[in-house]
Write a structure and sequence with these properties.
The protein is α+β, with helices and mostly antiparallel strands. It is about 15% helix and about 35% strand. A hairpin with a 4-residue loop joins strand 1 and strand 2. It is globular and about 60 Å long.
């Protein structure tokens, strides 16, 4: 499915927007879609060329893919160089996500990057994540407890070091993926930034599982994004592959912390991401609400 068909947001009065349900979709709303819509709603209320430089979001309740979502923007500040917006995403009167977006007029300044792009094989030499998962699903002798199907995400991913979905093993908490939309992202710089926010919710929590040698497909567990931060360093472009480089510095208390960096093909650092999420093994609390 094309990413553009998922990323629709309709104006519904001053500083209010509605995201319509996905046709035939069931289950929870993907967190990246909430981030996309929240950022796009905020940017729609900012005049002129003021791209986002940061987004801080908290996931409050799971959203339902069969119901519309309402995004309300509060214009907190418009200064000479910076604008700040607060965004609330609600569904049937229930708060799903709250976010704060800060935007800046483009400016030159002191430049430094301490995290160069990792030296990894080019995407043309790697197999896709979808192909690897489909191959694993053909292992009929495995009792799957979690889905491996990516379907309908609108993004192609090629892992540098593929995981073993059938027999997970202990690995260093580091992953690298080349990523790109299945089809070009239509729209101006606002849509491009929001598309990066969409992709930024992919594979973060899976990185926190690597040092434990488990995976959703074979271990019963609950997972959910709790909070999410993006710092934009450069304008994303989706006319080529980008490298999504991830690491997990800590897990504990049924939570995991993951960090991610987006690089363009030329090696420039485009964005830095941090997320803490729920990674709770299922036990006596089955049947309760996840959060």
């Amino acid at each position: 499915m094309a990413l553009n068909s998922l990323l629709t947001l309709c104006p519904d009065g001053p500083d209010r927007f509605i995201a319509l349900p996905e046709n035939g979709a069931e289950g929870r709303v993907f967190g990246g879609l909430l981030l996309f819509h929240a950022l796009l709603a905020a940017l729609a209320t900012v005049e002129g060329e003021r791209p986002a430089h940061s987004l801080h979001a908290n996931f409050q309740h799971a959203g339902n893919r069969e119901r519309p979502l309402v995004y309300t923007v509060d214009r907190m500040r418009d200064g000479r160089s910076y604008s700040t917006r607060s965004v609330l995403a609600e569904q049937d009167g229930r708060l799903v996500l709250d976010a704060r977006v800060s935007c800046q007029v483009p400016a030159d300044g002191l430049a430094f990057t301490a995290s160069p792009m990792p030296d990894v094989p080019p995407p043309e030499t790697l197999r896709s994540e979808a192909e690897l998962r489909e191959e694993a699903l053909r292992r009929t002798d495995v009792e799957w407890v979690g889905s491996l199907v990516m379907g309908g995400m609108g993004v192609e991913m090629r892992p540098v070091c593929p995981r073993d979905f059938v027999n997970p093993r202990v690995m260093a908490p580091v992953q690298h993926f080349w990523v790109r939309p299945v089809q070009p992202v239509e729209g101006d710089w606002r849509k491009q930034q929001a598309a990066l926010a969409y992709m930024s919710d992919m594979m973060l929590l899976s990185t926190t599982l690597l040092p434990h040698g488990i995976y959703w497909s074979t271990t019963a567990m609950d997972s959910a994004s709790l909070d999410h931060v993006i710092w934009f360093h450069d304008q994303p472009r989706f006319d080529d592959w980008m490298l999504w480089s991830l690491e997990a510095p800590w897990t504990g208390g049924s939570r995991g912390l993951a960090l991610g960096r987006f690089y363009n093909r030329d090696g420039a650092l485009v964005a830095t991401v941090a997320q803490e999420g729920l990674i709770r093994l299922r036990g006596t609390d089955q049947g309760r609400e996840i959060l």
